[in-house]
Amino acid sequence: MTAATIDRRGLWAAAGSFVIWGLMPLYWHLLKNVPSLQIVMHRIVWSALLVVIGLCLTQGLQWLRTAMARPRVPWMLALSGLLIAFNWGLYIWAVNAGHVVETSLGYFINPLLNVLLGVLLLRERLTVAQWVSVAIAAAGVLWLTFNYGSFPWIALSLAASFGFYGFIRKLAVVDSIPGLAIESLYLFLPAVAALVWLESHGSGGFVGSWSWQTDALLVFGGVLTALPLIGFSYAVRRIPYSVVGFMQYLAPTLQLLIGVLVFGEIFDRDRAIGFVFIWIGLAIFAIDGVWRSRKLAPIVATES
């Protein structure tokens, strides 16, 4: 597939997904008066209802039977569901606690962590350029660790949880949307039970205490959870993965800009140095990926 034949709808779907993820800090900041754990539980409930109802209307229950009949898929999706719930919770708490810059660092680190997981757990091989990129990015992480002012545990936890989430979803033989639906179903009843308990004990605010605008934001948060994931799954089937890889960095770049320019978080010289190392590593990795994909394209075209 050449640049001229890239599906434009796939490009727009990918761009839209990454822009939504990148602008998420602005949305969750609107809910800063709601406890982070309750935001996560509402996010689980409303996204589950949206995705499951959508699948049932289009496919009945066949998607559930097909996925759950596959070996290892049920317990793998249960584990991936816990990982993504942890990731969501930490991310929302960090945004509303004033750590947007550090969350962006986590999602800059994540692609390179995925590479290491592939090497260590899937026995994938890296080129010399890829090893150099990983080493430079690791130097940036170490620099930030010792010069950030505090250990960047938020960034590393976000990168690790989403990295292992992606690793499990790579191994689980199930499509993206049914996989998201089943993960959500595992979390749905505990989330509903917790919300009902909080409401009945006066700790919740969805029924009566919060404004209708806050309630609406919580419900629409489910849409914002599912929509970019659906758009991403649509895009990766229609455009080269190297293009997706380039566009992936749109989200943490937007998060970083929001943290510094909108929320006024600190971005001093020491943090800039660490980020520059990571950006250089990402650039080397991305350029190497594009070069290799273009080199292989004529060979694939000839063989086909």
Describe the protein:
There is one protein chain. By secondary structure, this protein is mainly alpha-helical. The protein has one domain (7-303). The protein is 80% helix and 0% strand. The chain has 12 helices and no strands. The protein has helices spanning 8-29, 36-59, 62-68, 73-96, 100-121, 128-147, 153-171, 176-200, 212-236, 241-248, 250-262, 269-303. Helix 2 packs across helix 8 (176-200). The longest helix is centred in the C-terminal third of the chain and has 35 residues, at 269-303. The chain is globular and about 55 Å long. The relative contact order is 0.20. It is a multi-pass membrane protein. It is found in: Cell membrane. Residues 9-145, 154-285 form the EamA domain. Keywords: Cell membrane, Membrane, Transmembrane, Transmembrane helix, Transport. This is Chloramphenicol-sensitive protein RarD.
